[in-house]
């Protein structure tokens, strides 16, 4: 059975103010409508001459943990920008506070200025992500850790409190090297703006590598974050939203063709195609985060419960 998450507007376009109340109401309503999870975006910096306001992803999730009771709390998280010890403390704390509702999608990042400002080698971000993820998992679940990594010395390190349950840690990625890391290191794949055909092809690579690595590919959960709009002008809405809010990597398969739009019937047909392509969770990005769209999506996903 396919699951449905929904993205939140914890970042917005230049010149606009982020509405904390709007984020809260969106999340609370998503919970009441039966969505499985809500998801925040992650950046430390975004834009220079045109600056995108961004609320910290984990801080936003922590706030929502106190405003909701059962919905999953997910975030896309640029791990190489944070030291594992600091990341583990924040992640374990939020998981503990929320009763184990936190989900994490670790990504390498793409905005080079963030890395320059944080003093992190942008060209080594893939390698850093892999190494940081390994020690992050140890910090979350193990005790008496003795380890050295990139100048960080862990001497008989134990961290408490630990998460009340395992925190699902997915990985993003598009290139084959990144997909191989997904298969070997993570709990699954988080894709972004992938249409069903491109998603299916990449998923087969992950499943093949997982099998070759001795892992059961059926234990890896996947998600695809895609824009959506129900209405006659849905295609135009999705296109304009993408132009204003996102920067799709030109070297990847990310494309506006991933957008789901049209009448309720057309939207259901497209969702079914994603399900057949092997998508476990669709994280829907309502174009322009319109509250009316959330209501219509809530009515639509009831058919899948």
Report on the structure:
The structure is a single chain. This protein has about 300 residues and is α/β, with parallel strands linked by helices. The protein has one domain: TIM Barrel (Alpha-Beta Barrel). About 40% of the residues lie in helices and about 20% in strands. It has 10 helices and 11 strands. The chain has an 8-stranded parallel barrel with strand order 1-2-3-4-7-8-9-11, surrounded by 8 helices. Strands 5-6 form a two-stranded antiparallel sheet. Strand 2 (about 35-40), helix 2 (about 55-65) and strand 3 (about 70-80) form a beta-alpha-beta unit. The protein is globular. The N and C termini lie close together (about 10 Å).
Structure class: alpha/beta
Strand order of the largest sheet: 1-2-3-4-7-8-9-11
Percent range for helical residues?
Answer: 40-55%
CATH superfamily placement: Luciferase-like domain
- The rough form would be described as globular
Cα end-to-end separation: 8 Å
Quaternary state of this entry equals single chain
Strand residues, percent: 15-25%
Which short descriptors sum up this protein?
single chain; alpha/beta; TIM Barrel; 8-stranded parallel barrel; 10 helices; globular
Structure, briefly:
The protein is α/β, with parallel strands linked by helices. It has 10 helices and 11 strands.
């Amino acid at each position: 059975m396919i699951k449905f998450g929904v993205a939140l507007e914890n970042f917005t376009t230049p010149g606009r103010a982020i509405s904390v109340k709007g984020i809260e109401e969106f999340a609370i309503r998503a919970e009441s409508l039966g969505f499985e999870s809500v998801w925040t975006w992650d950046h430390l910096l975004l834009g220079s001459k045109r600056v995108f306001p961004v609320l910290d992803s984990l801080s936003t999730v922590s706030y929502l943990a106190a405003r909701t009771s059962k919905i999953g709390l997910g975030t896309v998280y640029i791990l190489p920008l944070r030291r594992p010890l600091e990341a583990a403390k924040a992640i374990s704390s939020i998981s503990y506070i929320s009763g184990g509702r936190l989900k994490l999608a670790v990504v390498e990042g793409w905005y080079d200025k963030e890395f320059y400002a944080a003093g992190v080698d942008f060209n080594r971000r893939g390698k850093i992500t892999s190494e940081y993820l390994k020690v992050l998992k140890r910090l979350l679940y193990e005790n008496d850790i003795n380890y050295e990594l990139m100048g960080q010395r862990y001497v008989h390190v134990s961290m408490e409190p630990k998460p009340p349950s395992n925190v699902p840690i997915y990985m993003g990625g598009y290139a084959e090297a990144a997909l191989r890391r997904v298969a070997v290191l993570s709990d699954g794949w988080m894709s972004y703006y992938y249409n069903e055909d491109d998603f299916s092809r990449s998923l087969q690579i992950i499943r093949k590598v997982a099998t070759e690595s001795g892992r059961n590919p059926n234990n890896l959960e996947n998600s695809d974050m895609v824009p959506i709009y129900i209405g006659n002008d849905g295609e135009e809405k999705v296109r304009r939203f993408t132009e204003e809010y996102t920067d799709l990597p030109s070297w990847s398969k990310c494309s506006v063709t991933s957008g789901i739009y049209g009448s309720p019937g057309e939207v259901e047909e497209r969702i079914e195609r994603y399900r057949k392509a092997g998508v476990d969770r669709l994280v829907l990005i309502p174009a322009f985060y319109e509250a009316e769209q959330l209501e219509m999506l809530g009515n639509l996903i009831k058919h899948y419960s």
